[in-house]
Amino acid sequence: LRRAAESTAADYRALARHLRTGDGPPEVLPRPLDLGSLLAVAPPVPPAGTAPPARADSAALLVDSVIWLDALTADLARIHREM
Predict the structure, then answer these.
(1) Which end is more exposed in the chain, N or C (fewer Cβ atoms within 10 Å of the end residue's Cβ)?
(2) pTM value?
(3) What is the number of structural domains in the chain?
């Protein structure tokens, strides 16, 4: 998740440089996320009462983070297509 976030941030920085300088669009197009591998590290949400709530909370936060990061990447790809 950290690598995917760093990659997405780098893609947004490249776009910002392009918009600031007016140079040609960034040569490197945004890389789509590998959602399968990101979600594969999410622990399964345990049945009620079988695990501490913190584990379920962590799994939910991870899934939420992946969805948010995917939306950012999709927005960036759409911006590139429209440039």
Answers:
(1) C
(2) 0.68
(3) 1
